[in-house]
Design a protein that fits this description.
single chain; 2 domains; 6-stranded parallel sheet; 12 helices; Glycosyltransferase family 4 protein; transferase; glycosyltransferase activity
């Protein structure tokens, strides 16, 4: 198949990594894949001054970023290009294809206007993106007549129940079982928890930090490690004494997961939550809010689910893990690892590829009808 994939922004967020993986694996299977991204917009002087005055990070849409599409750092065999400027894509920007995939609410608006020769229209849903766009516009894209592929069950349920689309289907995200791995082990000599740093509010990093500080009052030697694709910002400072690493090499990320007794996932909202599977694949249980795919993944026994917006409950879960006997912790670690093993990218690509083929058949049937 000839496949065109649109991304709203090229960066290092988990959703872009998923797109990169699928683009590469589909190319390895003989498909012709083109990924197109919109470049960052230019911030006005007034915006720049206002952001500095308020001590807030520059919005992602207005700053360049390293991305998973940088061929020198993340090898790929598929084609990638930027639009010539920060604007909506038009049919003139893309070749004729068998499938064209929108991966963000704005890109869905673009793809909706393309003629049929640009390909069967697929909406790859990795979140309900009202956090980043006007609610009525985001919701309108969910009503578009596109074949919807969702990364988590809650998104499938949303498409079917709120937007009356019975054809929406689930293709769960996966984990690279070779990149994220660790040998069987016991608890750490010094109790340690970890977290993915992000100043984006819905990621809930502040909840995890508060939980750590509460738990540390009862376990003074409790440690925390953190990694992130952004530097810590004054709007969300690091707690005293934690170990932080900015953008560690991909080959080293497993070491941070692997040095923890539990990984904290405090999201207020999440499409899927790749760190859940990554940490589980490194035999680290997860303490998570019921966001994204956490209810299904953590619910299988490889961690503890805690209520939303409840640092005390997360702290209590940390203390529970710290107090576990070695055999109790090992049992939870093994369950986490077993859960991750059921989610590999080859199987996910089989399902994603099949979904694209179903989309082309549905489109062919409509044309024939």
């Amino acid at each position: 198949m000839r496949i065109t994939i649109f991304v709203g922004r090229a960066d290092l967020c988990g959703g872009q990594r998923v797109i990169h993986i699928y683009a590469q694996k589909l190319t390895e299977r003989g498909h012709q894949v083109l990924v197109i991204a919109r470049p960052p917009r230019k911030a006005t002087l007034r915006e720049t001054l206002r952001w500095k005055l308020l001590k807030k990070p520059v919005p992602a849409s207005a700053q360049p970023s390293e991305s998973y599409f940088d061929k020198d750092k993340y090898p790929r065999d598929y084609e990638f290009k930027f639009l010539p400027e920060h604007r909506p894509a038009t049919a003139a920007d893309v070749p004729d294809a068998d499938v064209v995939i929108a991966t963000w609410w704005e890109t869905a608006e673009w793809v909706d206007l393309f003629p049929a020769r640009k390909g069967a229209k697929v909406y790859f849903l990795q979140h309900f993106e009202t956090f980043a766009g006007p609610e009525h516009q985001v919701e309108a894209t969910w009503r578009l007549p596109m074949h919807k592929v969702c990364v988590a069950q809650w998104l499938v349920d949303l498409a079917r129940e709120k937007f009356n689309d019975p054809t929406a289907e689930l293709v769960s995200n996966a984990v690279d079982l070779e990149q994220f791995t660790a040998p069987p082990r016991g608890k750490q000599p010094i109790p340690t928890v970890g977290v993915m740093y992000s100043w984006v509010d819905f990621k809930g990093c502040d909840i995890s930090f508060k939980a750590y500080e509460i738990a540390k009052q009862k376990v003074p030697d409790l440690k925390m490690v953190s990694i992130g694709a952004v530097d810590p910002h004054p709007s969300l400072p690091l707690p005293d004494g934690i170990e932080f690493r900015f953008r560690p090499p991909q080959s080293e990320i497993k070491n941070y997961y692997g040095k923890c007794d539990a990984w904290l996932f405090g999201s207020r909202s999440e499409g899927f939550g790749l760190p859940i599977l990554e940490s589980m694949s490194c035999r680290t249980p997860v303490i998570a809010t019921p966001a994204g795919a956490a209810p299904e993944l953590v619910g299988e026994g490889g961690g503890i689910l805690v209520p939303m917006e409840d640092p005390q409950a997360m702290a209590d879960a940390i203390l529970k893990v710290v107090a576990m006997r070695q055999d109790e912790w090992k049992s939870m670690s093994d369950k986490a690892f077993d859960t991750a093993q059921r989610h590999n990218w080859d199987v996910a690509t089989d399902e994603f590829e099949a979904a694209l083929k179903r989309a082309t058949k549905r489109t062919d049937m409509k044309v024939a009808g």
